[in-house]
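Illustration 12: DNA helicase RecQ.
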Amino acid sequence: MEEMQLRATLKEYFGYDSFRPLQRKIIDAVFAGNDNLVIMPTGGGKSICYQLPALLLPEITLVISPLIALMKDQVDGLTANGVPAAFLNSSQHESEQQEIFNRIEKNELKLLYVAPESLQVIDRFLNDGKVSLIAIDEAHCISSWGHDFRPAYTQLGYLKNRFPTTPLIALTATADKATRKDICHQLNIPNALKHIASFDRKNLSLEVRQGIKRFEQIEDFIERRRKESGIIYCLSRKNTEEVAARLSARGYKAEAYHAGLGHMERIKIQEDFINDRSQIICATIAFGMGIDKSNIRWVIHYNMPKNLEGYYQEIGRAGRDGLASDTLLFHSYADVVQLQKFAANSKNEEVQLAKLERMKQYSEAFTCRRKILLNYFGEFKEDDCGNCDICRNPPMFFDGTLIAQKALSCIYRLKGQEPITLVIDVLRGSQNEAVLEKNYQQVKTYGAGKEISWRDWQQYIIQLINIGYIEIAFHKHNQLQLTPLAKTVLFEGAPVRLAKIPTEKEIKIQEETV
Ligand code: ADP
Ligand code: ZN
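Figure caption equivalent — predicted structure in token form:
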């Protein structure tokens, strides 16, 4: 295809002056008749890779998309730009479908969006020569190795058999190596060219904090970003509503968004956000797919996501315009346990649990977080990124053996029957009711850690949990208990390295200089 013609079409229908680096290469491969697998982060510009060829190819392009709710928006957007497009799904009447078939017959349509469930319906209307290109959006849905497996997608393997000479292009924002292989295997495109864009989004800062007093931390975070749009992702509908209500009470324009709301209500919330009539969306992961808002300046994860793919996709909604944007993830053990339960009840338990473990390791890391993330997506970087909390403020380690011994022996003497709050109260020699009631002032370690603040104790104990000396018994009122490994510290004098905890003042200074 001529360069001139490609550019003119890009300008005429999409309004852009030039292609992004990978887009051009992919489009050439499509015209050359190859099968293609495209891995590009959200916002990378995947759509053009099949929409533009669709305009220039002689017959129709089929687009398989899992999200019926988004099909209409996409088709409306294309139609508004003068692209002859339509969608077909089970929500339509027969007469509506007939109308579409008539347009296919007359060769009036360039793009047809189809839900995977509705493929059979169109089968009889299409013969091999009638389809110029098949695009499979959100292609990871075909793989149970992916994070969003959809059973209806498994039928798509048949497309290549049915249309053997039609090039196929599979696109996704999220696929680790195992998933990539599986996509090609299941779609019967073993010789597909793979186009993998860099996942590095340098403009997104990465930060992880302990999920302690989350709301206060969020308030402080937003206080510095009064005019900037952002999303707060929560695990439950209830959480989204609570956080939104508390922020609204403080004068922020915040809305809750989740799958339990009515269709119209959801549309309104999205539009208010896109048009800057509201500032903050507190949402479950139902929010964001297909949202095209370029100036989202920050994303907070109130709860831990269930895997790094989801996390990366969600933070990726910030800073699509390329300007600096901030992301903050709260790490909490209660969340990990909740997610473990979800994973344990899922179909592919083993995969889900392994993915969760990687998520946890990321949150607890003491090395450049971006390296860990990119590594997960198969990209290896030599240098630290300089734009994550670890790079900006590398942890300083010190000999924490004594601190560890005090904490572990206190837990030992409380017989593993008390939660973190009481353990710290005993360590600090607190006189509060709970301590006195149980006569804990008699315990040998009572007051042994007076010189360390409450907040610091909390952080040290979390580190000891992360290293593996302490466990939280979630089903037993969050009692802290020793693991077998703790013995090495208590009885064999094994040394313990702890990371220094920045003072609140140091944290403030860091924030202000960002
Ligand atoms: P993805 O599907 O990969 O998430 P989209 O196809 O929705 O990404 O594109 C993301 C954004 O980038 C959209 O706002 C789109 O209009 C814009 N975009 C895509 N290609 C180009 C280009 N060549 N020049 C400028 N903007 C582009
Ligand atoms: Zn870094």
